[in-house]
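Sanity check

After download, print the first record. It should look like this:
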Amino acid sequence: MRTLLRVPLVLLLLLLAYLNYRLYYHPSFTLVGGRAVNQDLLQHARFLKTRLHQGAAEEMQQIYPEGFVYLNALYGLTWVELAAGAPDTTAVYQEALTEVSWAVHAINSPTGRSTFEQDLPIPYGAYYTGWSTYLLGRYLAVQPAARRDTADVRQFEQGCASIAQGITQSATPYPESYSDAAWPADGVVCLAALATHDRVLLSRYQPAIRQWLARVDTHLDSLGLIPHKTDAQTGVVVQAAMGASQSQILNFLFEVDSAYARQHFIRYRHHFLTSRFGLPGMRESAQEAPNAEHIDSGPVLLDVGGAASIVGRRVMQRYGDYTTTIGLRNSIEAFGIPLTLGGQKRYLFGQLPIADAFIAWSNSLEVNQAMESSVSWRLRFQGLSALVAAGLLLILFVLRRQPNR
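Expected structure tokens:
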């Protein structure tokens, strides 16, 4: 009996030791053409490469309404960052371009468009056209101008023109993703595509972007944030800001107007950043709001959202809060069960590729240089761990002293 009792206690001690060890995670870097590149990120992208070429996007479509497009877009954007981080004479750069091109063509295939409605103000809706156009723009951005395929450039310009027309002619700043359904996060991706156009090609859409920002300021929720869902005809808030969509919005709003986005980031950090057992996390609902979830929330434990925290890790790095970024990154490393086999890294045993894609995309900003922080953010969790470990050891000691039965 004592042996049976000791086994789970020992396992708990080992789990505590493992979690505290993983909180010291630091990505490995390797030289690629003389430049340091995040080896962990590259191995993770290669795991996703294997899974996507085996049909993972089709599998995810059976679980999520936009699973096919979402997975391909996040996958392509991860390789975009790797292409930007590797010298253009290296095999890694060529591999990255090949995979981004693969993702672009997958999204633009009949399968990619099949679940979206063509007859909308923005053809196929803000979600599909936003992600497909933005990814294509980022693909063009990591290629020298002379090497860009003219068909890709033409398609990108057409996508941006459709977005600009749909945005400027709409009665609301948040265009429809589906008929009579609007999620502002999709509109922000559309605007990021226009901003990408003006960086990669000729500057054309700044007036439309400025007009959109001014209109957004009159269609915020009670916290001064871009809402989760709005009425498609009027832009009236239907559902206030939520963690997962707000994390996505802030990643793209930064590209539209970084100064404007920083104001929203300050509010987001105040209302959504929290901590559990001394570790940082992003709430799915704002502190002042009742708990709520939606299909993209991922698991929500103790009010902390899985998707909000994973994508929030990217937000925190983008806005320069490296201490929180490292805390979120290393918490994901601790609880995400990372495993590297055959030069490929995966999380959660690789059973949910969309989760791997979100983690890879969130980590992709750290492509060339690891973040550093002098703040000891682990101390509270370590203190709690020490107390729990002391209690477990005391119980084990008492069990050992008891006579055999």
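If your output differs, re-run the checksum step. Summary of this record's structure: The first strand starts at residue 29 and ends at 32.
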